[in-house]
Design a protein that fits this description.
Layout lengths: L1 H21 L26 H4 L13 E4 L3 E4 L2 E8 L4 E4 L6 E4 L2 E11 L13 E8 L5 E11 L7 H4 L9 E9 L11 E3 L2 E7 L7 E15 H7 L17 E4 L2
Parallel strand pairs: 1-13, 8-12
Antiparallel strand pairs: 2-5, 2-10, 3-4, 3-9, 4-6, 5-6, 6-7, 7-8, 11-12, 11-13
The protein binds zinc ion.
The site of zinc ion (ZN) has 4 residues, from β6.
């Protein structure tokens, strides 16, 4: 029996890893409250970094943690079909094709999904936020770069987000295929592809969900969308999904400006 148990847990670990980026990791093995709450994630298979990692996310940056830097992000974003998944811990739009990419420092990362955290997970100076969306990208070495954008509380949600927020499935592991497309390029106003970004903040952290893999870079864009109260409640209808802040351990937020 022990032999079988070992192989079962290995299989679970591998499939959880493979699915953590691309698609809804059903069945869900962790939660934000109760038995499988964040301070217990380190006990999940393959997830010890959730407890022992020195560069975990999310974090809270103070003004004194910000240092200047330079660089560019080339955003090669177009449209993505709006297929919204209820993963059991977030609502996410899974990228159905491999055409949306970013290039940073000569490395190209392909968009895997984007998903919402309510309230926002990170805190950076100048961006008090009610929610945060993560655009998760991965390169050929399976290194991860996350483009993060914040929402502030507003009277009404920025219209471009409405087709996504109107399609949040109630059923666990369900996928709502709307037939609509989401124009990522239009998040910046007039669509442009590719687009070179010269203003952003970044730091090095981890996935904010098990297995809490490190060497994940977060890039925060200097833009803020609005999230209306009804949409905020809808996104959090099954509970809030922000991991508590993790220790900064001396890390800095690099503020890139032209
Ligand atoms: Zn996330």
């Amino acid at each position: 029996m022990k032999f079988i148990a070992v192989f079962a847990s290995l299989a679970l670990g591998v499939s959880a890893l493979a699915q953590s980026i691309d698609s809804a990791p059903c069945p869900v093995t962790f939660a934000y409250t109760g038995f499988a709450r964040p301070d217990q994630w380190q006990h999940l298979p393959g997830s010890s970094l959730c407890g022992s990692g020195e560069e975990q996310s999310p974090v809270e940056f103070q003004p004194g943690d910000v240092i200047p830097g330079s660089g560019t992000i080339i955003l090669d974003w177009g449209t993505v079909p709006i297929h919204v998944t209820n993963s059991g811990y977030d609502f996410r739009v899974v990228n159905a094709d491999q055409t949306n990419k970013i290039t940073i420092g000569g490395e190209t990362y392909v968009l895997q999904n984007f998903h919402f955290h309510v309230p926002a997970e990170h805190s950076i100076p100048g961006s008090p936020a009610a929610a945060e969306v993560h655009f998760v990208h991965q390169n050929s070495d399976e290194e991860i770069a996350v483009i993060a954008v914040f929402f502030s509380s507003g009277s009404a949600t920025t219209p471009i987000w409405q087709p996504v927020l109107a399609a949040l499935p109630d059923d666990l592991c369900d996928v709502e295929e709307t037939g609509n497309t989401f124009n990522l390029a239009a998040l910046f106003g007039a669509p442009q592809r590719p687009r070179t970004l010269r203003q952003y903040d970044w730091y090095e952290g981890s996935l904010t969900t098990p297995k809490c893999d490190e060497d994940v870079r977060f890039y925060f864009l200097p833009m803020m969308f609005q999230l209306g109260g009804a949409d905020a409640r809808e996104l959090a209808k099954f509970g809030e999904n922000n991991r508590p802040f993790r220790p900064l351990n001396g890390r800095k937020l690099t503020r890139v400006r032209p």
